[in-house]
Amino acid sequence: ITTRIAQRLLETGAVDAVLTMAPDPADRWRPLPVIVTDPADMAGVRGMRMGHAPLLALLEPAREAGHRRLAIIGIPCQVHALRAL
To answer: Starting at the edge strand that comes first in sequence, how are the strands of the sheet with 27-36 ordered?
Structure first.
């Protein structure tokens, strides 16, 4: 459900990008932080990836790429850290 909501946000232009986790190409169980800007690419990040990865490290690259409205799909400790920022 979360992936579809984020996909819809991209489709409607409500957000410029989604910061989320994708499976690492070398190890499908290892999370890899990614910036998704194409709604069709949300299909590749479906599924739950509970694990530690530097998702919030993508905030600066997203900003540098010109993205101003972001959606973030993360685990609770990442969301808590984001709120603190």
So the answer is: 27-36, 17-24, 70-72
Pairing of strands 27-36, 17-24: antiparallel
Q: What pLDDT, in 10s, does the model give residues 2-60? A: 999 999 999 999 999 999 999 989 988 889 999 999 999 999 999 877 777 899 999 99
In Å, what is the CA distance from 80 to each residue of 6, 37, 72, 74, 75? 19, 24, 12, 10, 9
Length of the chain: 85
Task: Specify whether the CB–CB gap between 71 and 19 falls below 8 A.
Answer: yes
The token pair at 75 is 């685990």
Residue whose token pair is 């010109």: 66
**Could you tell me which of 84, 85, 83, 71 has the C-alpha nearest to residue 20?**
71
CA distance 23 to 16: 22
